[in-house]
Give the backbone structure.
Amino acid sequence: MSELAKAILFVVGAAFADSLVFGRGLGSEAALGASGHLGRSLRVGLATSAMLLVSVPLARLAQLYILAPLGAEYLTILVAALIGALVARALGGIAYFAPARGALYMGSLWLGAALAAIRAEYGVVYSLLYGLFGGVGFLAAALMLAAMRERLDLSDAPAAMKGLPLAILSLGLIAMAFAGLAGVAR
């Protein structure tokens, strides 16, 4: 298989088949929290994509070129969390991403993505691709959940299921659908 074909499978896998939200369960709280309105979901999704694009390769670079040569791999989680917090702070200062500031600090998504890239021993380029397309997958999930939630608000559901319970149930069904794609990227 050519390197281009491997890269395409990797990109599809990072965005959809091995989705951070539906496949790994990371960042679902941010996706559900932003799913009340399409505009907010778009901002949170773009901010999270930018966060992953920067923090995942930086965490991998720190692990490869600082921690590994010093024999301090036990500090990987701490360094990845510190890098993520610094990137979130920097992105939170950008006016367009300011409404998404709270979602950027929800560390399960970006910390999980950084640690997944480190654990899989991706190179720097693949870490960059994993961050970028993991963010694209999160953006797609957030927009999908927002559109679904807007339609559910108009539905005739029982009073006990309105709102978050129905959204969580729908999230589980979408996750099962994405689980069918799990073998595509392998």
